[in-house]
Amino acid sequence: MSGGLLVAGTTSDAGKSVVTAGICRWLTRKGVSVAPFKAQNMSLNSFVTREGAEIGRAQAMQAQAARVEPTALMNPVLLKPGGDRTSQVVLMGRPVGEMSARGYHGGRQAALLDTVVGCLEELRGTYDAVICEGAGSPAEINLRRTDIVNMGIARAARFPVLVVGDIDRGGVFASFFGTTALLSAADQELVAGYLVNKFRGDVSLLEPGLDMLLGLTGRRTYGVLPFQHGLGIDEEDGLRVSLRGAVRESVVAPPVGDDVLRVAVCAVPLMSNFTDVDALAAEPGVVVRFVDRAEELVDADLVVVPGTRGTVRALRWLRERGLADALARRAAEGRPVLGICGGFQVLGEHIEDDVESREGSVDGLGLLPVRVRFAREKTLARPVGEALGEPVEGYEIHHGVAEVGGGEAFLDGCRVGEVWGTHWHGSLESDGFRRRFLAEVARAAGRRFVPAPDTSFAALREEQLDLLGDLIEEHADTDALLALIEHGAPAGLPFIPPGAPS
Fold this sequence. Notes:
cobalamin biosynthesis, CobQ_synth, globular, 7-stranded mixed β-sheet, CobQ_GATase1, 31% helix, Rossmann fold, 6-stranded parallel β-sheet, alpha/beta, 27 strands, Cobyric acid synthase
């Protein structure tokens, strides 16, 4: 076969990322070579490919679902918000500058269409199928002229479009109809039909509505996916603890030892790659919660200060909320603190930043003997090393260059007492190292916590990806999906004028 599909959504967070991953895993299990693709992603959760390119974590996850190595071709444009109105533009895995939303949509975005189409065509020449993920909604009519990620790329590639709707939010029929009706006639020609996501209850009660939707739009529904608890897959920016987790606080599997271990993650502004703590939440007996008040650190056995796209802004936030003082007290008392990337930087003594915040010299929290200077060139790397006697792999994404002036070496960062800091994202996914680290935390916290000897984060992630493939295989019309991917949208789909039906 040779073909493709664009998975669009009625809204952001409708389930495009997980549906795309599920389709990739389902096709891969059928022996189809498949690649994911997202022309433009806006996310603070990113990943470094083996060739040193930065792409969205969702596309890296989808590549894993397809059992292929992620590359910059799969996410040629990544926007990393630095505030309400500006974002860093990452093109083909490398940052090319900061831009306002008006500046980007006013001209730069349309100029990138040739680049993203070229990437898509290269993938099409390599794989049997390419499953594209849209962004937001294809019916953002104010942005259609410069769109390169929804109907713009679908039109350029002549890909059929499957629109996903989250029925758990309510209003899914109106969302399907309205999304279609707001599109131009040429765009509507490619909208093949719909996929209902996160349904709870008896599907037979939904079927009359699906029949009415078919009558109103001339487009069928390709499946109804049930609400699935405990899905833990890297998406764009949803605040959750994945694998064994839930929003805000993880659900704990029974501990191996006598105690649980409580982990508090400071929910700093512009928090990035907070997926680092997913591996902690996957451990039986570990509770992970995101916090924004000093009193929430009192009963924590470990506090994590995660990555951030705004290091100086996060530092100010920690001070304003009393969290900085709480962290200092923990350090003085010998209670564990872990800083990752931007979180590592704020734990240092001094920050010189003329790049990210442009605030110049700023005092850090002084918990680690580290001085940070922000460089204009971004560090993108896939380091491999050892810590606590165990092999560790990670990835680095940062402008801050750390000069370590003392302490015990730790993953290119340092450790002083029970305060640890590193630029390495993803290090906690290394099973042996994670267990040794948690044993150290438990010792310092006085907890009778025992890390599970056989937890494999990679295996848990594979289970989740297989579960997504199962959802597609069991609850979607896979024969019809396969025909759609191979042959495109059915001919003669009716045009729905805005305002219909009468």
